[in-house]
Specification:
Layout: H1 9-36, H2 40-46, H3 58-66, H4 69-100, H5 106-118, H6 122-135, H7 141-165, H8 169-177, H9 182-211, H10 214-219, H11 228-232, H12 243-263, H13 265-277
């Protein structure tokens, strides 16, 4: 017979607080959604908090055509996926050497990686501009892939190294006694155990890279190489803003990340839960 859980007053209070927090978080998205399908005249007359009097797709279709959105969407997907994959691979290999291999000076190396990760992006712009100009890959997607693969892997290395540093030595020693090589230990012992954490890193690297603006704006100047966030910039004037078109463009730009999150939602949740259990 199943035991019946009786909720206390504290449980109900926590539930109410979580619902309110969820509504607060969703409120900007709700406002964005209702204004994306509203005409500019309707927005001017009734404001941003009312439902549209008549639905229109003109805000989204005009942005789609004027911004060359399919090209920018393809660029964002290619760059974000490449950065997520390369960043995760570099994080795993670096962390395996620092956390499992215990190379000399691993603590100093981790501190240097953490300090480099905390450096403001503004300090990187000019050296990166000069370097990529010199080697002839300026204004290509490869520049952004290289930069953010290194930046994201620095964070991943710091996080995974702390996880691998506490890995049970008995399991590793048993693998060595069975004649496993370092590659086999990584592939058959370490990766299956740390897969939930790696999945979380992959999702975060993708979303963080997708939302990046300043470095892509500085290094991707051609319309054919730019990403989705850069397509929103021309909609922001100095004195006048077409609010409904901006809402439609913003809605269109976040749909891919929402789809990506929904696709990997199970891996993200299981990874966070696994981390909390440890």
């Amino acid at each position: 017979m199943k035991s019946r859980h009786i909720r206390t007053a504290g449980d109900w209070l926590a539930l109410v607080i979580m619902i309110l927090a969820a509504l607060i978080i969703l409120f900007p998205l709700i406002i964005l959604f209702i204004n994306a399908f509203k005409t500019q005249a309707d927005y001017t007359q009734h404001g941003p908090l009312t439902l549209p009097k008549a639905l229109t797709m003109s805000n989204i279709t005009s942005f789609w055509k004027s911004s060359n959105f399919p090209v920018k969407l393809t660029n964002s997907i290619v760059i974000s996926v490449c950065v997520a994959i390369i960043g995760v691979i570099l994080s795993v290999l670096n962390s395996f050497a620092l956390g499992i291999g215990r190379v000399k000076g691993n603590r100093v190396i981790l501190v240097l990686i953490l300090l480099a990760n905390m450096a403001p992006q503004e300090a990187l712009l000019y050296p990166l501009y000069v370097m990529f100009k010199a080697i002839g890959i300026y204004d290509t997607q490869l520049t952004v892939i290289i930069i953010f693969s290194i930046v994201q892997s620095a964070y991943g290395t710091y996080l995974l190294s702390s996880v691998y540093g506490t890995f049970p030595q008995a399991i590793l020693e048993a693998g060595v006694m069975d004649g496993a090589s370092k590659w086999q230990i990584l592939w058959k012992i370490i990766l299956p155990v740390s897969w939930p954490t790696i999945s979380v890193l992959f999702v975060f690297f993708f979303v963080w890279t997708w939302n990046e603006y300043m470095i892509p704006m500085s290094l991707l100047i051609s319309d054919s190489t730019q990403t989705v966030p850069l397509a929103l910039a021309p909609l922001q004037g100095q004195y006048v803003v077409n609010a409904t078109q901006l809402a439609g463009a913003s809605l269109l730009s976040i749909i891919p990340t929402i789809i990506f999150y929904m696709f990997f939602q199970h891996q993200l949740t299981s990874g966070i839960v696994a981390g909390s259990v440890k």
